[in-house]
Design a protein that fits this description.
Elements (H helix, E strand, L loop, with lengths): L1 H20 L4 E5 L2 E5 L11 H9 L8 E5 L5 H8 L3 E6 L2 H13 L5 E4 L13 E4 L23 H11 L5 E7 L4 H10 L2 E11 L2 E10 L1
Parallel strand pairs: 3-4, 3-6, 4-5, 6-7
Antiparallel strand pairs: 1-2, 7-9, 8-9
């Protein structure tokens, strides 16, 4: 209750401050890898999900594993996985994000495949060893490409499409991070309709916000 009240009180100030701050490209660095986050790309700076995924990947043995970051945004997760030896594909619907990622891959001397794709629409590989997903989950129709990083549609259309496509694939390990702020039970039920189950792989609480990495498995 206290956390919700504080969030309600501070949100207008945070929104104004972050919008103003991210009107120009901002650098983000993890383990010596630097990316420039464009104004219309999901910023990992003040959100917890990206850092939690990066810390999780740190302990994985990824050498020669195939890995897809679906909806890569800044691409820092994809770059870090590639630095650890994975054969990485990074996909996103936002050309601005992908152009910045291409520049970051050159600057950091890290090789990976970069694909402009809405979910799996133009991804031809039928199976990866790992898929990482940091999805939009607020129920609102996005008005532009920037908002697609935050809003999943009024009726969670993003998850409808995601689970339908995942159910047809043969990937080994699919991991998705969600915050307690989203409607987790609704998302779980949507997965079940496609014979998929979300099991908690990791739970982290930071600054009074609980995040979960779920492993998506077939029933």
């Amino acid at each position: 209750m206290i956390r919700q009240l504080l969030k309600k009180l501070t949100h207008p100030f945070l929104k104004y401050g972050t919008q103003k701050y991210f009107l120009k490209p901002r650098a983000y660095v993890y383990e010596g890898i630097e990316v420039m986050v464009m104004p219309d790309v999901f910023p990992p700076h003040y959100t917890l999900s990206t850092k939690i995924l990066l810390d999780y990947i740190k302990h994985l043995e990824l050498k020669d594993k195939t890995l897809l970051e679906l909806g890569c945004g800044s691409g820092i997760v994809a770059l870090y996985a590639a630095k650890k030896g994975a054969q990485v594909t990074a996909s996103d619907i936002n050309p601005s994000a992908l152009n910045a990622l291409k520049e970051a891959s050159l600057k950091n001397n890290i090789t990976l495949d970069i694909i402009n794709s809405d979910l799996f629409d133009v991804i031809t590989n039928p199976s990866y060893d790992y898929i990482f997903i940091n999805p939009p989950y607020y129920p609102k129709a996005p008005n532009n490409i920037k908002e697609q990083a935050w809003f999943c549609g009024e009726n969670f259309e993003y998850f409808d499409s995601l689970f339908i496509q995942l159910a047809e694939r043969q990937d080994k390990t699919i991991l998705m991070i969600l915050s307690q702020d989203c409607e987790i039970d609704k998302i779980k039920n949507m997965a079940l309709k496609n014979h998929l189950q979300l099991d908690i792989e990791l739970e982290r609480t930071r600054f009074a916000e609980r995040n979960y990495i779920f492993k998506i498995r077939r029933l």
